[in-house]
Structures are given as C-alpha cells and as structure tokens.
Amino acid sequence: MEIKGFIETSLIDWDGKIVSVVFLPGCNFRCPFCHNHILVKHPEQIADVPWERIESFLRGKKGWIDGVVITGGEPTIHKELMPLLAKLKGLGLPAKLDTNGSDPDQLKRIINGGLVEFIAMDIKASFDGSYDLACGVAVNKENIRESIALIMSSGLDYEFRTTIVPQYHDLDSVENMAREIKGAKKWVLQQFVQTNADDEGLRSLPPYNEEYLEEMRKRAEGLVERVVLRGI
Ligand code: SF4
C-alpha cells in the first residue's frame, strides 16, 4: 500500500509509549486548520516509503518500540488498512489508529478483528452547521455518532480529541460536543497552531489563551470523565 511518511521513534503520539508512526495519504475531509494538507491534497508530491524498510526497522527494534501509530490523512479511506494492521499484529506490535470517525463500518471490522489497542478519534465541532464548516465538507453526523458509540463500547483504550480553533469553537460548542461524547473516558482539547494551516486566512488567527481553554475544560468536566488540554 502507499505509505507516505514514517517516523522511527516518537514519544508524543501515544501517551506513555515509544512508538513508530506511519502516515497514510489522502483524506475525505478538508479541515481548514489541517496541518497535513500536502499529505491530504497532494500526496503525489511526497515520496513513498517502502513497507519493506518499515518492516525491517520494526523487526530490528523489537523490544524497543512499544507500538505503531497509524495516522494520516485519514487511514480508514484505505482498503489496505486492515491488512496493514494485521501485518503489525503479526510482528507482535500493538497499533494505535488515528481517525476522523467517518467510517464506522471499517472501524467495527478493525475492532472486532482485534487489530488495534488504542483509537484516537477527532470530534471536529458541535453537531450543527459548525461540523461541516470545521471539516470543509458535508459530513454524515450519524456516522460520526456511530463511531463514537462503537469506540466507547469497544473495551479498548481510546481518546476523543478536538483542535480548538476560535473560528469554530466557543464555550457553548464545547459543552455541545461534550454532550455528544457524554460518559467518555477522555477528551483532549488541543491548542490550535496557526502556522501551516491549510486555509491561509487562519494563519493570522490568534488561538485562544490558556485561561479560556481552561474555562472550556471546566465546562466539559462532569460530562466526560477526564478532559485534558494539550499543546499549551
Ligand atoms: S480529518 Fe485530519 S487529516 Fe483530514 S483534513 Fe481534517 S485535520 Fe486534515
């Protein structure tokens, strides 16, 4: 399958673990704040990373690497995702999947197949018109809700996460999102970084300050077990 990036070791992509990270190209969303827009929109500009190189590294580092993160882009748009996860399982390596939650059927197969240990799913915005604006496309919100329910009932470790962009989020929208994932174990509110946002108009938009993000975090407390801020 097409692999467009590989980080040999990362300490920040799976809490508490030393992992390798595999980047898959393309995405069915067009989030204006996306940092990986070349990978999403012009993957042909990025050289392929041969699987054989990755496999050789992972075999050589057995015992040193705790797992592998599959990210993108959006990994679930690829029909080769399950075979890739199966290969990692065959190597004895736990996998974490990053997803926008748009394909609950694929998620269900992956969960039922025991192919991942951790799922991180984006909650992009409040489930009204904002969701489509934050994703840059019309999104089937029922698919998103189905993915949330699947993940929460999977028995796997997981987190939901939201990049907080002043254009799309305020205190009320945070509360609305928290109600959509009510009872979830963990929700990460990530600071927005303007540089390299896909939409050039967002590159001059100041992010919220830490105090306001803390207010957001408190607004969601009580609806979600643990709400954490990241990137501040
Ligand atoms: S879902 Fe993720 S990869 Fe896809 S456009 Fe949005 S931020 Fe970028």
Structure description:
With 232 residues, the protein is an alpha/beta fold. It has one domain (5-230): Aldolase class I (TIM Barrel). Helix content is 32%, strand content 19%. The chain is built from 8 helices and 8 strands. An 8-stranded mixed β-sheet has the order 1-2-3-4-5-6-7-8, covered by helices on one side. α4 packs parallel to α6 and α7 runs parallel beside α8. The longest helix is centred in the middle third of the chain and has 12 residues, at 141-152. The radius of gyration is 17 Å and the shape is globular. The protein starts with a strand and ends with a strand. The structure holds iron/sulfur cluster. Iron/sulfur cluster binds next to loops. Residues 27, 29-31, 34, 36, 40, 72-74, 100 line the site of iron/sulfur cluster.
